[in-house]
Specification:
By secondary structure, this protein is mainly alpha-helical. It contains 4 helices and no strands. It has helices at about 10-25, 30-40, 65-70, 80-85. Helix 1 runs antiparallel to helix 2 (about 30-40). The longest helix is centred in the first third of the chain and has 18 residues, at about 10-25.
C-alpha cells in the first residue's frame, strides 16, 4: 500500500471506514493496510495535538480519531494517536 500523495484528512476517513469494517467483519485482509495507514498518520500529529495542516492537501485539519481507538486492541500504541488530537 503506497502512501504517496495521500491527503491527510481523507487518510483518516479511510482508516475510519476500514476500522469499522474490520470491527464488524473481523476480516484479517484489512489489518496490514490499516497498520501502514495508521503508522503513516501518526507522523502528522503535532505537539499541540493538531493534525495535518498547510503541508497537507487543501490545508485540511480533519481528523477522525475513533478508528485509532477501535484498532488499539491490535496495537495499544495506536490509542496514543487518537488521544493526542
Amino acid at each position: 500500500m503506497s502512501m504517496r500523495g495521500v491527503i491527510h484528512g481523507y487518510l483518516t476517513a479511510t482508516i475510519s471506514f476500514l476500522a469499522k469494517y474490520f470491527q464488524k467483519s473481523q476480516d484479517p485482509s484489512v489489518v496490514d493496510p490499516l497498520k501502514v495507514a495508521i503508522a503513516f498518520a501518526g507522523h502528522f500529529i503535532h505537539p499541540d495535538g493538531s493534525f495535518g495542516g498547510e503541508y497537507g492537501s487543501r490545508a485540511t485539519f480533519h481528523f477522525y480519531p475513533h478508528s485509532f481507538e477501535v484498532m488499539s486492541s491490535l496495537a495499544p500504541e495506536w490509542r496514543r494517536i487518537g488521544d493526542a488530537t
